[in-house]
């Protein structure tokens, strides 16, 4: 039986799924690959720094298989790039069945799309590229390059895979990832919401939107990737070393203090960007 599911991975507390934009692009393409080869229908998703959300239609078994395959692909890529094994092995996946009545599908999709707004990354999900926030009720023409026009070598570089055969009419954006419009059931989602106005109502009244309002003074002001990109230079300028791991304990405490005040980072964000536990980040913050 094909049902609706809200799928959420646990938040990584000591690291990130995506350290830079290339990681996001690779993951976007892996979603496309799994959507093509899997037995589920993708209705909405979002890739956040340390977790992901999906709304999928399919059997529970097929949804689990989809997520395991996606995590496996990305883990292999992450290991090749960063030398870190089994990044996502302990990253649990939670499945919640979405009822089809009482506007539950609308609320689940809005919850997923508004994650980027709740994280203070943008003011509306349509401004966030790593997911389906700008896909629905979007009348702008889809531009890019058809997959069929890529050489095998170029396609291999794009997909980080040797043997994928995807529809030749799928469009790759100018930024280098397969557009979700190719494989997301856009019509089904738009039919569910019925109008842009009604969709915006659910977005603005979702639990994520309320979290953004209730915690406005306590959410990070900078994306994780922005801080990570500056850390080597910051460590070098302050201590003559390249990374948090290279620092002496007292230097690590000072770096935490610098991150906190330069970037208005909270303890969770400091833990993620430094690759340390929440407890260690909290201790460093208290010592600072």
Structural class: alpha+beta
Query: How much helix is in the residues?
Result: 40-55%
What is the CATH class name of the largest domain? Alpha Beta
Round the Cα radius of gyration to an integer and report it.
20 Å
The termini sit apart by: 55 Å
Roughly what fraction of the amino acids lie in strands?
5-15%
User: Segments where pLDDT lies below 50 for 5+ residues?
Assistant: none
Beta strands, count: 6
CATH architecture group name of the largest domain? 2-Layer Sandwich
Going across the major beta sheet, what is the strand order?
Answer: 2-3-1-4
Domains, number:
2
Order of helices and strands: EHEEHEHHEHEHHHHHHH
Q: For this structure, what is the CATH homologous superfamily of the largest domain?
A: Transposase IS200-like
Largest sheet: 4 strands, antiparallel
Here the CATH topology of the largest domain equals: Alpha-Beta Plaits
Q: Averaged pLDDT, please?
A: 87
């Amino acid at each position: 039986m094909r049902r609706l599911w809200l799928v959420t991975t646990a938040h990584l507390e000591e690291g990130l799924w995506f350290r830079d934009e290339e990681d996001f692009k690779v993951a976007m393409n892996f979603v496309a690959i799994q959507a093509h080869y899997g037995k589920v229908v993708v209705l909405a998703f979002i890739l956040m720094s340390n977790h992901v959300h999906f709304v999928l239609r399919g059997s529970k078994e097929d949804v689990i298989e989809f997520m395991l395959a996606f995590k496996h692909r990305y883990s292999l890529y992450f290991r090749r790039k960063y030398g870190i094994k089994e990044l996502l092995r302990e990253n649990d996946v939670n499945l919640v069945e979405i009822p089809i009545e009482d506007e539950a599908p609308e609320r689940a999709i809005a919850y997923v799309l508004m994650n980027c707004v709740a994280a203070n990354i943008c003011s509306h999900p349509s401004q966030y590229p790593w997911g389906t926030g700008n896909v629905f009720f979007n009348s702008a023409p889809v531009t890019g390059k058809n997959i069929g026009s890529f050489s095998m070598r170029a396609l291999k570089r794009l997909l980080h895979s040797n043997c994928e055969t995807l529809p030749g009419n799928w469009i790759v954006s100018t930024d280098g990832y397969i557009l979700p419009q190719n494989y997301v059931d856009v019509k089904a989602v738009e039919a569910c919401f019925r109008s842009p106005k009604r969709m915006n109502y659910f977005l603005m009244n979702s639990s994520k939107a309320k979290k953004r309002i209730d915690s406005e003074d306590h959410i990070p002001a900078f994306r994780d990737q922005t801080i990570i990109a500056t850390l080597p230079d910051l460590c070098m300028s302050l201590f003559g070393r390249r990374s948090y791991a290279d620092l002496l304990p007292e230097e690590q405490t000072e770096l935490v203090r610098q991150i906190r005040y330069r970037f208005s980072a909270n303890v969770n964000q400091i833990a993620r960007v430094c690759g340390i536990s929440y407890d260690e980040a909290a201790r460093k913050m208290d010592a600072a």
